[in-house]
Specification:
Blueprint (H helix, E strand, L loop, with lengths): L9 H12 L7 H9 L5 H23 L5 H9 L1 H33 L6 H16 L3 H26 L16 H12 L8 H4 L9 H27 L1 H4 L5 H8 L10 H32 L3 H19 L5 H48 L1
Helix pairs in contact: 1-7, 1-10, 1-13, 2-8, 2-10, 3-8, 3-10, 3-15, 4-5, 5-6, 5-13, 5-14, 5-15, 6-13, 6-14, 7-10, 7-13, 12-13, 13-14
C-alpha cells in the first residue's frame, strides 16, 4: 500500500466537512422540520446537530488515536477482522447510495426549477462525469476543490435567510410551546440526516498534517452547519408560516424569490442561486463518491490506476440507482429508508469504535501499571 503525504490543514478539513454536510437538504428543511413541530420547527435542526456532534467527537478521538489511518485500517484493528470488514463494507455501501440519492435530488431540483425541458438523465450524467473526473486525481485535489468553493457555498447560505428576514412576520414563531416531545424526537432524528457527511472525516482525517486541530475543524464545521440550517428554518417560518411551508416542494428556493428587490439583485435571482448551489452539490457528492472509491483502493491496497478504473466502473450502477425512484414521492421515501441505515453507519459505529478503543486503552494502562508494580 502506497504511503501518501499528510497535507490537509485545519481550514481544509473544515471546508471538507461543511461542503459534505450542506447540500440538497437545505432546499427542503423548512418544510420537513415544521411538518410535526409547526412554529417550533427550528428546534429540530438544533437537536439533530447535537446528536451528530456526539458522533463527531467520537470521530475526532479516533483521528487522534490512529493518525495517518483511514477507517479501512482502524476498524479491523478495533473490532477484529470479520466485524471490522463488515463495518467497512456498510460504510462504503452507505456512501455509494447516499451519493446516488443526492444526485437524483439535484436532478429533480434543476428539472423542476430551471431546465424543465432537459432530460433528468442528462443532468445526472453531467454531474456524475464531473465527480468521476475528480476521482481521477489524488486526495489533496479534493481538499483544494472544497477550499476553493466553500465561500461560494457558505455566503449565500447565510445571506439568503438574512435578506428573507426583512419580509418576516415574527408572530409566526409564536407561541413558543412544544406540544409533543415525541414529535421533537422524530423531527430531530429526521433533521439529523441533514448533517450526514461528517462521517467522511474518518477518511480525510488520515491526511491531516501533524499540527492540524481536528477538534477545532470539526466543531467549526458542525456549528456553522447548525447556524445555516436553523436560520433557514426560522426564515421559512417567519416569511411563509408553517402551514404554507407544507405546500412548497422546495421552500428555500421560494425564500430566494422573496429576497428579490429592484436594484438589489438580478432578475430571476433563484437561477443565480441554483448556479452557486450546483457547486455545493458537486462537493457533497464528490466527497462522498471519492471517499467510496478511495476506501476501496485502500481496502485492496492498490494505487491511483485502480481508483480511476473503479470510478468509471462504479459510475454505471450509481447512475442506474439514481433512476430507481419513479417520482419525487418515492424519492423522498427512499431517502428516509437510507437515513435509517445512516444511523447505524454514521452514529452507532463511530461511537462504538471510540468506546471500544477507549476501554482498550484503559485496560492496557492498568495492565502496564500492574506489570510495573510487579517488576518492582
Amino acid at each position: 500500500m502506497e504511503n501518501q503525504q499528510r497535507n490537509f490543514g485545519t481550514w481544509q478539513l473544515t471546508s471538507i466537512m461543511l461542503s459534505s454536510m450542506i447540500g440538497v437538504g437545505i432546499l427542503t428543511i423548512p418544510r420537513s422540520s415544521t411538518a410535526l413541530l409547526h412554529q417550533m420547527g427550528w428546534v429540530g435542526p438544533i437537536v439533530g446537530g447535537l446528536i451528530a456532534s456526539v458522533a463527531v467527537v467520537a470521530i475526532v478521538y479516533l483521528g487522534h488515536e490512529f493518525p495517518g489511518l483511514t477507517f479501512v485500517e482502524f476498524m479491523p484493528r478495533i473490532f477484529g477482522a470479520v466485524i471490522g470488514a463488515l463495518c467497512v463494507f456498510l460504510f462504503i455501501l452507505y456512501q455509494f447510495f447516499n451519493a446516488g440519492i443526492t444526485a437524483r435530488l439535484f436532478g429533480e431540483v434543476v428539472v423542476t426549477s430551471v431546465l424543465p425541458n432537459t432530460p433528468l438523465e442528462a443532468i445526472i450524467v453531467t454531474l456524475l462525469l464531473l465527480v468521476v473526473f475528480l476521482c481521477f486525481h489524488e486526495i489533496e485535489v479534493v481538499a483544494r476543490v472544497n477550499e476553493l468553493l466553500i465561500p461560494f457555498l457558505l455566503l449565500p447560505s447565510i445571506l439568503i435567510p438574512l435578506f428573507a428576514l426583512m419580509n418576516a412576520d415574527w408572530y409566526n414563531l409564536l407561541p413558543l410551546h412544544i406540544e409533543s416531545w415525541t414529535h421533537v424526537v422524530k423531527t430531530s432524528l429526521d433533521s439529523y440526516s441533514l448533517y450526514t457527511g461528517y462521517e467522511l472525516l474518518m477518511v480525510y482525517f488520515a491526511f491531516s498534517i501533524p499540527g492540524a486541530r481536528l477538534g477545532l475543524a470539526s466543531m467549526t464545521g458542525m456549528s456553522s452547519a447548525i447556524i445555516v440550517y436553523v436560520m433557514t428554518v426560522i426564515a421559512g417560518i417567519t416569511v411563509f408560516g408553517y402551514e404554507e411551508l407544507q405546500r412548497l416542494v422546495w421552500p428555500s428556493l421560494e425564500l430566494v424569490k422573496v429576497t428579490q428587490r429592484t436594484g438589489w439583485f438580478l432578475e430571476r435571482f433563484e437561477s443565480a442561486y441554483l448556479a452557486i448551489w450546483v457547486a455545493s452539490v458537486f462537493t457533497t457528492i464528490g466527497n462522498m463518491f471519492y471517499a467510496t472509491i478511495f476506501s476501496l483502493r485502500r481496502w485492496f491496497g492498490k494505487g491511483i490506476l485502480f481508483q480511476r478504473i473503479s470510478a468509471i466502473v462504479m459510475m454505471v450502477p450509481l447512475f442506474y440507482s439514481t433512476l430507481v425512484p419513479q417520482n419525487i414521492v418515492e424519492l423522498f421515501s427512499y431517502s428516509d429508508n437510507l437515513n435509517t441505515m445512516g444511523y447505524m453507519v454514521t452514529v452507532f459505529i463511530p461511537i462504538m469504535l471510540a468506546i471500544t478503543q477507549f476501554l482498550r486503552n484503559q485496560i492496557n494502562k492498568r495492565r502496564k501499571g500492574n506489570n510495573e508494580k510487579g517488576g518492582t
